[in-house]
Amino acid sequence: MIQNDLLLRALKGEKTERVPVWMMRQAGRYLPDYLKLKARYDFFTRVQTPELAAEITLQPIDQVGVDAAIIFSDILVIPQAMGLQVLMEEGKGPLLPSVIQEQKDVDALRTDTVEEKLQYVMDALTLTKKELNGRVPLIGFAGAPWTLLCYMVEGKGSKTWDKAKEFAYTQPLVAHHLLQKITDITIQYLKAQVKAGADTLQVFDSWAGALSPADFKAFSQPYLLQIASALKNDAPVILFPKGAWYALQDLSESSAAGIGIDWCISPQMARTFTNNKITLQGNFDPSKLLAPIPEIKKAVKEMIDSFGSQRYIANLGHGIMPNVPVSHARAFVEAVKEYRVP
Amino acid sequence: MIQNDLLLRALKGEKTERVPVWMMRQAGRYLPDYLKLKARYDFFTRVQTPELAAEITLQPIDQVGVDAAIIFSDILVIPQAMGLQVLMEEGKGPLLPSVIQEQKDVDALRTDTVEEKLQYVMDALTLTKKELNGRVPLIGFAGAPWTLLCYMVEGKGSKTWDKAKEFAYTQPLVAHHLLQKITDITIQYLKAQVKAGADTLQVFDSWAGALSPADFKAFSQPYLLQIASALKNDAPVILFPKGAWYALQDLSESSAAGIGIDWCISPQMARTFTNNKITLQGNFDPSKLLAPIPEIKKAVKEMIDSFGSQRYIANLGHGIMPNVPVSHARAFVEAVKEYRVP
Fold first, then answer.
1. Which of B264, B266, B273 to mutate against chain A (most A CBs within 10 Å)?
2. Which candidate, A141, A147, A176, A170, places its Cα nearest to that of A79?
3. Choices 3.30.1050.10, 3.30.230.10, 3.40.1280.10, 3.20.20.210: CATH for A6-338
């Protein structure tokens, strides 16, 4: 039994006496105890060692007071499990030396060994679940197929993702084969995460916003809908299509339990586009955590006033930045907890 | 007299027998003749030598067939004229060694010598106007105050503009002083551009989309409205608030003649948000110029069908990318010209 199940109740559309709160990327980056581990172990050692991943996952629960734990991992473990090499240089972002260029590259990707290759994620989830001892729910996650395609085709981060888009525009059938293959393995992966202990799942479509509305509908949305539908009897799914405000209505009619909202839309607009039908999560500007604490508290109150306190999960509109003082992260969480639900 | 005044008529809301077309960043980047000049002269030599700027401005008129010329220059000439050093490393973007951090830095900025210091822009406009000989209109431009603040505070490009936002959140009065100072000089600068030969003006708010709707309304919109209002009797103004789809309604009620639209909104939505009140410009995904030519032509037709052929200027949703083949840029322009207006 989970003692603080506010997050899960908000996702089910049940009444919550207080707004639940967590922060994307809350495990890592800005926390001094994380930085100590980072100095000793490289990125994939931290991800692939269940004891380290569990320790990092738990840090913000005790130190910042969030209402959920999200497993410390990375969306690029899926391309790795499919056979692509992924290097992570500290401060530089990911690098995939071999990229997908044509159908034979897609054919060469493995999809049959995900549970075996990503056993370390399952072990980390099971260990974290045990150590959480029912305090708060545990969130598992995966990257959205479009976002993973971006990295698998570009080989690294990009401002425009024009190589990924050129690939989709010039070889649409190959792109769809790749997206379907990623979708299939992601569904397996997320189901395994639930078996290993995840109470809810988030799908990060970090680069959705690079696409026009028509291209999002072609290259991202169908795969998000497949994932939400395939998981609907396993655990509540939160879709986070960063930048794709234009798709909120369609996604609100999917099998997802919640939608993550970035900060470039007003809460009222987000409620309107989703017809007040679905639980929303977001959408504090991560940069606003650099504002003075009284400003943070004021803005949090305004945000909850605008979203409303029900069917709502307070969060940032994207990941917390490394340069945020811990006291400011705490102030954000406190402000949510101090909000008086009518 | 201007022979091809389609652009100006579209901005006035007059009937156009064909959709006018130009491309942001059309002068430079992808054109082989530009690359030859780039190999011989550094960036600010190209910008500050009227003969070079005029030659670069004219290249796409003859070579790609666009319906307007936009003066080859840079938005960072304003911070330069205000006394900040701006370095431009090829392929690396701008670098401002001294940044704005507090009120005394704002106080030290000059606003009295813009016409003198930027005389080379006026000379380039006058020379280009003469060489155009009335073929097509000449567009002048400036950066929006918020976007210039971003560079003046960060000192270089950023994914998140979190330093600029931190500055605005922690020292809002200083930020507003800076924004007003940039606004005042920008109005002087744009008026001088009209006197020197610009037929219309575009204001680039390239980093509007970093802001939440509430912060855009606080830190960008008032200054865009001031600029549009101050110039309304001088020349038609096009505002391009990249990413700020949420502000389209407010901006459609401003003194601007047109609004530039990025590709992350459907034409129908853009028309709805602006109540069919104002001329819209855009919004082809720049990456889609990497698609096969038949796909480009098909997408252009769909775009015009959706915007409608009146009160409309075909353009990209952001600047053309350096890796676009010239034949693809030409196909984009041709497709607009081939569109049969009912």
1. B264
2. A147
3. 3.20.20.210
